[in-house]
Amino acid sequence: MPTLAEALERPLYVLNVTLDYAAGRVHTQQRLEFANPADRAIQTVRLSLPPARRANAVQVHSVRLFGAPELLRYTLADAVLEVELPQPLEVGKAIALSLDFTLNVPPQEIVAGIGGDDTSRGPNSLTCGHWYALLVPFRNGNWDTPAYAPIGDPYLSELADYEVSILAPEGVIVAAGGEEARAGRLWRYSLPKARVFAFSASDRYIVERAERDGVEFVHYAYPEHRAFAEDVLITAERAVALFSRLYGPYPYRALRIAETDRPQGQEYSGLIGIGSRLYQGYPGYGARHDLIATTVHETAHQWWFNVVGNDQIRSPWLDESLARYGELRFYQEYYPRDVEWWFNYFIIGKDGAVLRGAIDLGITDYRDGREYVIAVYRRGLLFMRDLRNRIGGATLDAALREYYRRGQDRVADQDLFFDAIASQTTQDISDLVRGYFAQPVRLPCRISKGAPSCRP
Predict the structure, then answer these.
(1) Which among 182, 319, 336, 435 counts the fewest CB atoms within 10 Å?
(2) Main-chain phi, psi angles of 450, to 5 degrees
(3) Residues near 53 by Cβ (< 8 Å), separated by ≥ 6?
(4) What is the distance between the alpha carbons of residues 44 and 83, in angstroms, rounded to a whole number?
(5) In angstroms, rounded to a whole number, what is the distance separating the alpha carbons of residues 46 and 33?
């Protein structure tokens, strides 16, 4: 079995795409280079192919070792593609798999709350979020393949490099993360150190650009929302400037913001999607609107999700609560008169909901999307606010900078978060944690008054 000559720091995805926009069809030739992630030889590899959970969405034409003519045996079940290698892949060795498949991008699902497929199409665009064959994380001696859930972000993605070419029809505009180069209908992207490569495409996009501090900001909108491009771009510019100062540098040279036919916002690496519904009702000025807050929230995910990764299925609070806290810091910085409005609108809400529920559960532990949002987004912000009040705003900012420093390019967990808090304060926060968390948390001794079960 041929192996790669050089050791890989992280997986490399090479995606060559032919987009049939009118038919909603994406034909992909994919090469995936990766090293054996286990501490033993393996003879099966598991890949996640999320759109395959829907009937007839994916047709896999072939799987083979790159450059080899022999087809490899595989099974595809529950959106997991299990490939059998011709012989064991030894520890430390790397191979390149070659896959050929066609994706029929399904129509947008109608879901309540936050969730649903992030690979879908509507009347004005199509979006491919988690759409290709992703190497499944190998954790605790096994391939980690949790079942799909229609709540939150039901995907696991680890750091990888991407080289992508998309051949699109004439007149179709493509928006994606990374360094972009275009030659006619061919769009090329290079995206290093990313959690996911996503793209949106439309034959209606109007493109507007701006630049600040060496970062290019690009907005893709339907013609009826073109007038809002300047406000979205200014919001993204301000958010990147603020979070870069508070937490650490933005990792790319461009941030692209694409209007989609999905009902909500969605974060990707170097790209954020803003659902068309979020543009509706925006008056064209000010910050008291979902369009502005959502742009800030998804931009914050470039720090909390992309640079500092987390398990979005089992610990969604680590990116969603921190991204929502980023919204609060944005309004405090740029729109202090609107902070009370923001808090009442997004956290207290007009739905009369009682804000209850532990913030540290996995997405499948919440009964539905509404319960998930109340706990993780709304009570998660209350936890961050109470933590700030307890240890001080400047201390929390310093702790988040330390969390960013320690967690960048990793899949962080809540122990790392609390270690960062403990690096900046000795305030006891154990009562706060008990009030918001369902599962026992072994806090560092410095921030739990030396409790018997604390961590040194």
Answers:
(1) 336
(2) 65, 35
(3) 78, 79, 148
(4) 5
(5) 14
| Of the candidates 211, 205, 260, the residue with the CA atom closest to the CA atom of residue 234 | 211
Looking at residues 23-37, what average pLDDT do you find?
Answer: 98
Q: Where is pLDDT greater, at 174 or 262?
A: 174
> Residues with Cβ < 8 Å from 252, sequence gap 6 or more?
177, 178, 191, 215, 269, 270, 302
Read off the pTM: 0.97
Please name which of 293, 290, 196 lies closest in space to residue 236, comparing C-alpha atoms: 293
State both tokens at 325.
């806290």
* CA–CA gap between residue 431 and residue 438 (Å, rounded): 12
Question: Other CB atoms closer than 10 Å to residue 78's CB: what's the count?
Answer: 11
Does 270 have pLDDT greater than 90?
yes
pLDDT in tens, 114-166: 777 899 999 999 999 999 999 999 999 999 999 999 999 999 989 999 999 99
CB 237 within 8 A of CB 334: no
Task: Report the greatest alpha carbon distance in the chain.
Answer: 66
Confidence (pLDDT) at 109? 77
Q: Do domains 1-191 and 317-447 have the same CATH topology?
A: no
Residue spans of the domains in the chain: they are 1-191, 317-447
Superfamily the domain 1-191 falls into: tricorn interacting facor f3 domain (2.60.40.1730)
Tell me how far the alpha carbon of residue 296 is from its chain's centroid.
Answer: 14
Give which of 386, 419, 425, 427 is closest to 402, Cα–Cα: 419
Per-residue pLDDT of 78-113, as tens digits, reads 999 999 999 999 999 999 999 999 999 999 877 666
Domain 317-447: assigned CATH number: 1.10.390.10
